[in-house]
Amino acid sequence: MHPEQANLEKPIRCVMLVDDDSTDNFLHTRLLNRSGIVDEILVFEDAEAALDYLRAPVKQVDLICLDINMPRMTGLEFVNEFEGFWDPSQKKPLIVILTTSVEPSAIELTKKVPRLVAAEPKPLRLQLIETISKKYFRSDEIV
After folding, report:
1. What is the pTM for the complete model shown?
2. Of 30, 31, 61, 117, which sits with the fewest C-beta atoms within 10 Å of its C-beta?
3. Count of domains observed in the chain
């Protein structure tokens, strides 16, 4: 984190990582903590547990970083189920799809679901978080 940002409100209040790979979660958490952009990070290694949390959230989640290739429930299945119960008038959380290789189905889904703002290869990059922060989360007006 940049020292000058230590006492400022961060543009992205809460990021949810949904990935069955604990190493990716560790690396992504570390990147987000060091970015100075994110206030809190929730980590779920199971997509169904993440959906359960979102059905009755304790905290508002601003951004979900979602792995596509997970056992039991894929990232695409997660998005379909989430869109089935989430109020479409709620702009947040936004979703970023992360995967080892960006599949055409993920790119197509980003065109159909407005809250899907990116489909990117792993690992999560600081430049992507900075771009999303500037485009969707203004520090003076967090929606």
Report:
1. 0.88
2. 30
3. 1
In a domain? residue 142: no
Residues whose CB is less than 8 angstroms from the CB of residue 49 and which lie 6 or more positions away in sequence, other chains included? none
Residue 139 resides in a domain: no
Can you tell me the distance from the alpha carbon of 121 to that of 118, in angstroms, rounded to the nearest whole number?
10
CB atoms within 10 A of CB 69: 16
**Which H or E run contains 44?**
strand 38-44
Residues 98-140: tens digit of each pLDDT: 988 776 766 777 778 889 998 899 999 999 999 999 999 975 4
Mode of pairing for the β-strands spanning 38-44 and 63-67: unpaired
User: The CATH number of the domain where 93 resides is what?
Assistant: 3.40.50.2300
Burial class (CB in 10 A: 0-12, 13-18, 19+), 84: exposed
Domain carrying residue 63: 3-134
d(CA 109, CA 16): 20
- Decide if 140 is inside a domain: no
